[in-house]
Design a protein that fits this description.
Among the domains are: 55 residues, Up-down Bundle (Monooxygenase), CATH 1.20.1280; 128 residues; 43 residues, no CATH class. Helix 5 runs parallel beside helix 6, helix 9 runs parallel beside helix 10 and helix 14 packs parallel to helix 15. The strands form 2 sheets. It has a 15-stranded parallel sheet, with no helix packed on it. The chain has a 3-stranded antiparallel sheet with strand order 1-2-3. The chain is of the alpha/beta class. The longest helix is centred in the first third of the chain and has 12 residues. InterPro entries: F-box-like_dom_sf (IPR036047), Leu-rich_rpt_Cys-con_subtyp (IPR006553), LRR_dom_sf (IPR032675). This is F-box domain-containing protein. Keywords: Ubl conjugation pathway.
Length: 526
């Protein structure tokens, strides 16, 4: 039995043993639309301004009024990024970029294309230069940029303060020269991982570039002493310099660097050869706050002592993989009262835990990274948790000597109200996270424990434990003689057997045709 119930705004049809079904009349949609249309323009503009750029483009298609109101909200967009916007194999294209910058390009301060660079062509630089004449920060990481497109961009975006060209593989010194020629206000220039850069572009840098404070040259494998020397001669006011993994830099240019850059605050030179007399010059940089000398065999105890005596404001220090260090140099780091982040991964066995414990006793550490090293023990981590109330990050991946004892120190800290969690990286240690003995640790809300092993076994100082030494008795005997392979003519007639003692010795009687068809084919074609 079915009986309709009629109302002003909707009709309800009730059927036996069924849920009621509602049928809305067409005037309801118009009523709802009228409810939105009666809102003032200022209210709609405020609502539209909270939408993303992708949603605003869709709103423009609703009606003429909404289109004009949305256009008034583009003025509020100062920073544009495409992170987590495109799905699957889709990406930013020149047409999409032109459509967006046509609306908000004139108001942008920051534009980031690093999240979706693969479908953007060199024509995108003309689009950016056309619509974003007042742009200050631009990230072109891995974008297909050439020297010509950089010239077109720099000639129109002359107000750039920060430019990132990381992994722009087609850029050369000529393209960077165009940037330095037009962008006089540039303060941060990132040229990391550009394989064709030699540094000749810095020769044309004028004295007007007094704003350039930071430059990144990491993994520029063709950067040489001449190119870096031009930079050091023109940019004596640099505050940040990144030259890690530049193999063609000699100790002579390092000495010039230490003498000229007295205002340097950040110096990242991982894997750089400082030379035998580097300790005599590194003490000249008294303003250093961030130092990375990791994986350098020429970093000696005297280098660290000279650095500590002159640069007392160091907050971040990385000496990972410095195989020449001993306790004499590491223990001197205890005099750095402002040290907050320390990395001592892959240090040799000549550095003991007492040296690291002396550093921890200052109570200022925020982060400690000690991967695959014996100089960090349970006692050091317990002291870190007890004496350093601001600690936020601890990475002891690959340290076999670390056990579950360290959790006791963090248990005592559980009653303290912490604003930030403590992130622990414990992969490759003696801790068994699935054991019942550490079940109670999961109840600590202030601990974020990860069992991923971030250590690289190839860099371990105790590699013999991981990979035993080679035993000559089990391998190839050097004195063992084999019959030389006889010369074979390039053309061999079919169905002709060639006597070859070497092949008989190699295969022997144990060769079976059915074991591997590929072996049989190679035999027949030989």
């Amino acid at each position: 039995m079915m009986r309709p119930v009629v109302n002003e705004k909707y009709e309800t049809t009730i059927t036996n043993n069924q849920e009621p079904r509602f049928t809305f009349f067409q005037d309801d949609a118009s009523t709802l639309s009228a409810g939105v249309d009666i809102l003032l323009d200022e209210i709609l503009i405020h609502v539209f301004s909270m939408l993303s750029w992708k949603e605003r483009l869709g709103i423009e298609r609703v009606c003429w009024r909404w289109k004009h109101l949305v256009q008034r909200t583009w003025i509020n967009i100062k920073h544009l990024s495409f992170k987590r916007v495109f799905k699957a194999f889709l990406g930013l294209t020149d047409r999409t970029l032109d459509c967006i910058l046509m609306r908000c390009g004139a108001y942008l301060d920051t534009l980031d294309l690093s999240a979706s660079p693969r479908m953007v062509t060199t024509f995108a630089m003309d689009i950016i230069g056309k619509h974003c004449s007042c742009l200050k920060n631009l990230d072109l990481t891995a974008v297909n940029v050439t020297d010509v497109s950089l010239r077109n961009l720099a000639s129109k975006c002359t107000h750039l303060c920060s430019l990132i060209l990381t992994r722009c593989l087609l850029v050369t010194d000529k393209g960077v020269g165009h940037i330095l020629q037009f962008c006089k206000m540039l303060s941060h220039l990132d040229l990391a991982e550009i394989p064709l850069l030699t540094g000749k572009c810095f020769k044309h840098k004028s004295k007007e570039h007094r704003c350039l404070k930071a430059i990144v040259l990491t993994k520029c494998h063709k950067l040489n002493d001449y190119g870096l020397g031009q930079l050091l001669s023109e940019c004596t006011e640099l505050e940040e310099l990144y030259i890690s993994n530049c193999p063609h830099l000699s100790p002579a240019i390092m000495h010039k660097l230490f003498k000229n850059l007295n205002n340097l605050r950040v110096f990242v030179a991982s894997g750089i050869n400082l030379g035998e007399h580097g300790d005599e010059y590194i003490g000249c940089m008294q303003q250093l706050e961030h130092v990375d000398l990791s994986f350098s065999r020429h970093v000696l105890d005297t280098t660290i002592i000279s650095l500590v005596q002159n640069a007392r404001n160091i907050r971040v220090l990385d000496i990972s993989g410095c195989s020449s260090l001993t306790d004499a140099g590491v223990i001197s780091l205890a005099h750095l009262r402002k040290l907050q982040r320390l990395s001592v991964s892959y240090l040799p066995n000549s550095v003991s835990s007492e040296s690291i414990d002396r550093i921890v006793q200052n109570g200022q550490l925020h982060a400690l990274v000690a991967q695959a090293t014996k100089c960090v023990t349970d006692e050091v981590i317990i002291s870190l948790a007890t004496l350093c109330p601001c600690v936020e990050y601890v990475d002891v991946s690959g340290c076999f000597q670390i056990t579950a004892r360290i959790f006791e120190a963090f248990r005592m800290d559980s009653s303290v109200q912490r604003q930030a969690k403590i992130e622990l990286k414990l992969g490759g240690t003696a801790i068994d996270w699935e054991s019942y003995q550490v079940d109670w640790v999961s109840g600590f809300s202030h601990l974020d424990v990860s069992m991923h092993n971030l250590a690289i076994n190839a860099l371990r100082p105790d590699m013999d434990i991981i990979l035993p030494s080679y035993d000559d008795d089990d391998g190839w005997e050097e004195g063992e003689d084999f019959a030389p392979h006889l010369p074979v003519e390039a053309y061999q007639p079919d169905n002709v057997d060639i006597d070859d003692d070497w092949d008989e010795d190699y295969y022997g009687d144990g060769f079976l045709e059915n074991d591997d068809p590929l072996e049989q084919e190679q035999w027949n074609m030989s």
